[in-house]
Write a structure and sequence with these properties.
Length: about 280
């Protein structure tokens, strides 16, 4: 694993390079995650591949990179990374990163040979007349609360994650490395690297502009695969992408193929060896 910097117009984007092969895969992570989310997938790629996990602005090593945030901003950063590494490249994204990847593939299709979307990118239904701040509090509020917490040590931060209902029964060394990468600060005040302002802004974009991702899916002309989990963010059914919505967009988006990844939840679909191997196979 090698840390690298990708130049942008307003600074630089941190990334982690896994592997040294000439075939490039760009990877965009979820709303409070980091480039380390794709370490297991990278391990399952052949030696002629390199996976470039991006720390999206406001997260990981890019946590001091200022806004604007939102999927269009992340898509522009992804496009800049693709150009930096010699497009066209393969693009993948998980959760929020799947929405950013979708937007990048629609706005700059010449930069990407294929797109692999992991448990994200489909417009989620929102209630008629919903109040954005109330819905944001219900959806990303718990994540933002975690970002404001501090812990006595990295070990305490890891122990906090080990109690998560979607992770407790699947804990492994890869998850420990993922959590340690996210930790920052001095002993007694360890906290997440993710920027709460970025998380809130991105969550608002995903909710307020949900319909725009349906427009993106209809415009998409880069070959795309959606891999989705049967269980959701707390490890129980239903998944984050309900079956009726998956079926709908599987028929409405001409470039999209959908595939269920059995026995996974929203997180283990990316960090469980069997699922990561399947994702790596679809990337190739």
């Amino acid at each position: 694993m090698q840390a690298i910097e990708i130049p942008l117009a307003d600074g630089s984007l941190n990334a982690l390079r896994f592997g040294d092969g000439p075939k490039i895969v760009l990877a965009a992570h979820g709303i409070t995650a980091s480039a380390m989310a794709f370490a297991v997938v990278a391990r399952h790629l052949p030696s002629d591949y390199s996976l470039i996990g991006l720390d999206l602005r406001g997260r990981g090593g890019s946590n001091t990179l200022a806004g604007p945030y939102g999927m269009s901003a992340h898509a522009a950063d992804i496009a800049a990374a693709a150009e930096h590494f010699g497009a066209p490249v393969v693009l993948t994204g998980h959760s929020m990163g799947a929405y950013a990847a979708l937007r990048a593939a629609v706005t700059r299709p010449e930069l990407f040979t294929k797109v692999v979307l992991v448990d994200g990118a489909l417009p989620l239904p929102v209630p008629d007349g919903f109040e954005p701040d109330a819905l944001l509090e219900a959806t990303v509020g718990p994540a933002i609360a975690r970002l404001k917490q501090t812990f006595e040590s990295e070990e305490a931060y890891v122990a906090f994650f080990q109690q998560h209902p979607a992770l407790a029964d699947e804990w492994n060394d890869d998850l420990t490395a993922y959590v340690r990468y996210d930790a920052m600060g001095e002993p007694g005040a360890i906290r997440s690297r993710a920027n709460a302002e970025a998380v809130y802004a991105d969550g608002r974009d995903l909710l307020v502009n949900a319909a725009s991702f349906g427009d993106d899916l209809k415009k998409l002309n880069v070959p795309a695969t959606l891999l989705y989990a049967p269980r959701g963010m707390f490890g129980a059914e239903p998944g984050m992408l309900p079956e009726p919505i998956v079926r709908h967009w599987g028929s409405e988006a001409p470039a999209l193929t959908v595939e269920l990844v059995p026995d996974t939840n929203h997180y283990t679909i990316l960090m469980k060896d069997s699922a990561a191997s399947l994702i790596a196979g679809r990337i190739q």
